[in-house]
Amino acid sequence: KISAFIFDLDGVITDTAEYHYLAWKQLAEELGIFFDREFNEQLKGVSRMESLERILAFGNQAERYTKEEKEALAAKKNEHYKQLIEKITPNDLLPGIAELLEDLKKRGIKIGLASASKNAFAVIERLQIGGYFDTIVDAANIQHSKPHPEIFLTAAQQLGVPCVECVGVEDAEAGIQAIKAANMFAVGVGTKEAMKDADYIVESTADLNYESILKAFQQK
Ligand code: BG6
Ligand code: MG
């Protein structure tokens, strides 16, 4: 049986994955580093500092900056990101998410959030959906980033639910790996190629539906 759903935030609940992309792209271009959506796929679900390291390495600039300078660069990206998320309203929930959260609540299924973002609480607040979540685990509560399973394991533990009864929902490759490593059922939102390790794939959040997920879960 399914006892809990644990959601990623950025790119699953709302389209902040796009805002992270835009904010990193602006910073990368200021540094003279080419940045496109294909490269951005590798940053999804990855922490702020690790994302910066990957961008600098991609632009052959890994050795150019001191630790302090890198922290300043990451802070600059975050300032831009924070400006972008100020515009978020409850209308910015991705299609089908409000209905799914409501359906899960009615069925008595626990709901958790597992987000690598230090801005997770601010985004949830702007979306006005905090009341749906039985637990929120964000970057501040964990040591290891996705693809490490820690964030999903912590959420399950806080919900008091065994991992085998949890469904994780993700849009990032690193996130799917984290869910699988936590021994949970992985639902991927995205293309078949990007979500190839997921147990169940939907192209859009509009196609996330409890009954269909349960069927796939039981068949596994
Ligand atoms: C993840 C996003 O949820 O959070 C990444 O997928 C982002 O793109 C990471 O870099 C960290 O977010 P923040 O808000 O702490 O910089
Ligand atoms: Mg995501």
Automatic annotation (TrEMBL):
The active site is at D8 (nucleophile), D10 (proton donor/acceptor). InterPro entries: B-phosphoglucomutase_hydrolase, Beta-PGM, HAD-like_sf, HAD-like_SPP, HAD-SF_hydro_IA, HAD_sf, PGP-like_dom2. One of its GO terms (biological process) is carbohydrate metabolic process. Substrate binds at residues 8-10, 24, 43-48, 51, 77, 115-119, 146. It is an enzyme of class 5 (isomerase). Binds 2 magnesium ions per subunit. One of its GO terms (molecular function) is magnesium ion binding. This is Beta-phosphoglucomutase. The lineage of its organism: Bacteria, Bacillati, Bacillota, Bacilli, Bacillales.
